[in-house]
Amino acid sequence: MAEKRNEKPVAPPSLVGEYMAEVQKIEAERRAKKKFRIVEGFPFWPHEVVRDAIFICFFTAIMFFLGGFIPYYLEAPADPAGQPHIILPDWYLLWSYGLLKIAHPVELFGYTLFTAKLWGVVLNGLVVAPLLVIPFIHLGHSRRPVEDPVWAGLGCGGLMLAFTLSAYSVNQTYREHWPWIADFIGNYEIDAWLTMLLPVVAFFIAYIPLTWRKGIEGYENKLSRNYFRIR
Amino acid sequence: MADAPAPEATPKPVVPSPAAPPKPAAKPVAPPPASGPASPTKPSRKLTMTDKVNLQAFAWFESRFKLRHYAQGLRNFFYRINMQFPVSHTERYKLRIIWYWYPLYTLGSLALLSFVIATITGIILGFYYVPSTNTIGITCHGETTSEAWKSIGCKIYSVPFGFMMRQLHFWSAMVMVAAVFLHMVRVFFTQAYKKPRELNWLIGVGLLVFTLGLGYTGYLLPWSQLSYWAGTIGLKMALATPPPAVGDWVAGLVFGGSSLGQDTLTRMYLLHVFLLPIITYTLIGLHIFIVWIQGIAEPH
Ligand code: HEM
Fold first, then answer.
1. ipTM for the whole complex
2. Dihedral sign, CA of B204, B205, B211, B213?
3. Any CB–CB contact under 8 A between A113 and chain B?
């Protein structure tokens, strides 16, 4: 028994075994032919970890600094009878609250498909769902924004949407605090339009210059060549 | 074991080390002699008393814990880190352009750091917090309050460093949410979710949702005005989930019924201090393990 255990186990032929053998054969052939191949990653250890360690030290200090110098006070105790003038979730959920607020009832031929409340909830799902499919619909080898201006533009549009939705959720507050904004923008209706239009503007602000840069430099084939090498 | 992949199939290290590294010493496990128990070899010199005691002690541990395996593992680990350390990525690939986004690659670790700080301070806060909406005979600063509010508003501020613990917990939570979001943005713009990292992106989306969930459930715990009315929004959203039967069920499951009360707080407490942290830590472990085996996506 003891000798058996130290021997390399010989896997009986199986589909998996054959597959592994085939993959190895193909890789070996590629390497022999010196075909270029994309380098897929640099190591987490130590390259990334060393860099991270430096930042971690710094940010530990930053967190003590924030904690020590910017107090976070407790609100008054809960009072189910006294709804405050303004109700808000924490800042990172404002986008979701903005969606609830911006949702109108959806009607088709006089028939209500979604009530405003339901549409708000559905919109929340519709905003998060695309995140799940991104890796499966965006194919190709580009890695930098300039190599794929469309997706860079979509990203900027998405960021802008998160921002405008958050802003929309607190529009009552900022209009009360800074009346000049209310004078400048006009009525609340325009807030809603801006919330939906600014992301489109952000898309083009990113898309146009990046396309221009890409046209000048032809990134995919020229600058990236150093990364295609044999391993 | 019929489907076990052949042992040769282990992947090559992501970046081969430039100079041929010194091979780590061969496996220490010598095959035992063919027959009979191993016969003790003669020591090379006469053993003193100290030697004997030391050897006995060592043998005692060694026979129980197989220390040499771990020693060998440590040695291999040491070789491995020494082999790769000096080569920078830029040198290795003779880069002609400078990728000035590298500082943003630390955001993932920042998220982990703030989560660890939040966990440590959260455990300490947990020693004092009482998840109860009971208000009978409970006062704090002369006001009638709930027990939950009192435990944060009065009790924690009266223990040494209690204020600082709460401050750190709050700020690390803020930093964590911001870091996770920005980390996702950096992964998106460097398009690091492409093959072979699709699965890690999906795990990441899960992590984002759980991070927001941790923030939301924590927001409700002090049972203050903000907590209560933020809870109301959440409850309304849960109730609005189509179809109504499912909405009621979700509200009952997460908020403990169709109105806010003790059940809500109990559930938020359990989610915040037990369920969500455990799920999040597990996913983070998986996430970083996958980054470890795949390497960081190459910027071109
Ligand atoms: C608690 C939350 C999270 C933690 C602790 C975490 C941690 C990390 C760490 C340490 C890395 C190594 C590289 C780096 O730091 O940039 C990484 C990479 C990665 N993360 Fe996260 N992450 C989190 C959330 C997310 C989210 C929300 C997403 C996206 C939806 C995501 C997607 C990815 C992907 C795709 C990689 C591989 C990137 C590459 O190879 O360049 N992670 N994560």
1. 0.85
2. negative
3. no
Report if residue B30 sits inside a domain.
no
Q: How far apart are the first and last CA of chain B?
A: 41
Q: Which of A97, A104, A149, A172 is nearest to A127 (CA)?
A: A97
**A46 in any annotated domain:** yes
Task: Pick the more confident residue, B148 or A182.
Answer: B148
The token duo for A67 is: 């904690």
Residue of A9, A59, A147 with shortest CB distance to B300: A147
- Does residue B106 sit at the A interface (CB-CB below 8 Å)? yes
Question: Does A166 share its domain with A198?
Answer: yes
Which residue, by CA, sits nearest to atom 8 of ligand 1?
Answer: B108
Q: Is residue A8 part of a domain?
A: no
Low-confidence ranges of chain B (pLDDT < 70): 1-41, 81-99, 299-300
Cα separation, B204 vs B287, whole angstroms: 7
Co-location of A33 and A127 in the same domain: no
Residues A58 and A161 in one domain: no
In testing the pocket of ligand 1, which one of B106, B119, B186, B187 has its CB within 8 Å of the most ligand atoms?
B187
Can you say whether the dihedral through the CA atoms of B91, B92, B97, B100 is positive or negative? negative
Q: How many domains does chain B have?
A: 1
- The answer as to whether B53 is a domain residue is no
Residues in chain B, overall count: 300
A116 and A222 fall within a common domain: yes
What is the per-residue pLDDT for A76? 86
Residue B68 lies in a domain: no
Q: Within this chain, do residues A70 and A123 fall inside the same structural domain, yes or no? A: no
**What's the rounded mean pLDDT across residues A195-203?**
96
CB B299 within 8 A of CB B99: yes
Residue A121 structural domain: 87-230
| Residue B11 confidence (pLDDT) | 45
The domain that contains B241 carries what CATH number? 1.20.810.10
Between A43, A75, A128, which is nearest B226 by CB? A75
Which ligand 1 atom sits closest to the C-alpha of B115? 1
Closest-CA residue of B relative to A75 is B224
Model confidence pLDDT, tens digit, residues B44-94: 778 888 888 988 888 888 888 887 788 788 878 777 765 544 455 556 666
Q: What is the pLDDT of residues B252-264, one digit of tens each?
A: 999 998 899 999 9
Residue A174 sits in the same domain as residue A198: yes
- pTM for the predicted model, two decimal places: 0.79
pLDDT of residue A50 exceeding 80: yes
Based on the domain organization, do A177 and A214 belong to the same domain? yes
Angle (CA) B203 B270 A80, round 5°: 115
